[in-house]
Amino acid sequence: MLEQARAFRQAGQNVDLLPNGLQALRYLSRQAYDSVKAADLSDSGAQQMLNKDVAGRELYRLSLANRDWAEAYGEGRAPVRWYELQQALRACLPEEAVRLDFRCTNLAEAPTGCVRIEGISRLGEGANPYAHWQSNEESDKAADEQGVFTSPVRARVAIAADGINSAVRQVLYAGTPHQDCAQPAYAGYGAVGCLDIGQLSDELLAQLDEHYTHDARLLTVFNPEHEDGARDASAPPGRSRRVLHPPSFAV
To answer: Half-sphere exposure of 65 toward its Cβ, with a 13 Å CA cutoff?
Structure first.
């Protein structure tokens, strides 16, 4: 496990492990699987996601209930904090197999059939506009701006799970037709999560509740003028036959 951060901290957003992810995790390590299931953040109060048009008319519902996912795919889903997943995987590895403060700069196939991963350290952690946190530690501020080369790592397989600004993907895709895939791209829509809506008037809150949120804690709203096709109501959770263009907003 190669980690760019200089220390393990409870940082990052939540991730939703769907059935195929949980099945893969169970295959890799029953210990990690059990740890993730124990850290499951499933909200018993939010058992479905509603999709409505801008007039408040329901388009379709997506079940979030574990029993529905398990019935359709043989396994449920598990929303967890990224930190919990990271620690579950870390616990399965010997201490010498975990490297902190390592940022990939190059990958190459070694003559032995392994992957040689080269990297630098002492870069600190730069501001990440895609995360909800930002490091303010003095040790990070004092890090060498250019970094220093560290000893390479050899492995049979390298998995690029280093986030939206993946350095590994930038190395792999450089000079290829897929080079643009190495950089974040705006998908055309956004999502809004609200923990507190105290700034809205009671009148506006009442209207929003009447038309949109009275029967759903999770909601997406679409503009029907940009809607193609029809959804198969018999499709299992997570599968939609409807192609929907950017939503007006999501709650």
So the answer is: 9
Report the first-to-last Cα separation within the chain, whole angstroms: 35
User: Of 83, 69, 56, 63, whose CA–CA distance to 21 is shortest?
Assistant: 69
Spatial separation of the C-alpha atoms in residues 124 and 103, rounded to whole Å: 10
Going by pLDDT thresholds of 50, 70 and 90, the confidence category of residue 30 is very high
3-state DSSP assignment of residue 226: helix
Q: List C-alpha distances in Å: 109 to 26, 104, 157, 160, 178.
A: 29, 14, 10, 15, 20
Q: CA-CA distances (angstroms) from residue 14 to 41, 51, 58, 82, 85?
A: 9, 22, 27, 5, 10
221: helix, coil or strand? strand
Alpha carbons 72 and 66: distance in angstroms, whole number: 10
At residue 153, the 3 state secondary structure works out as strand
| pTM, to two decimals | 0.64
Tell me the sheet residues that pair with 211: none
pLDDT of residue 247: 40
DSSP secondary structure string, 191-207? ----S--TTS-HHHHHH
Give mean pLDDT, residues 206-218. 78
CB atoms within 10 A of CB 251: 17
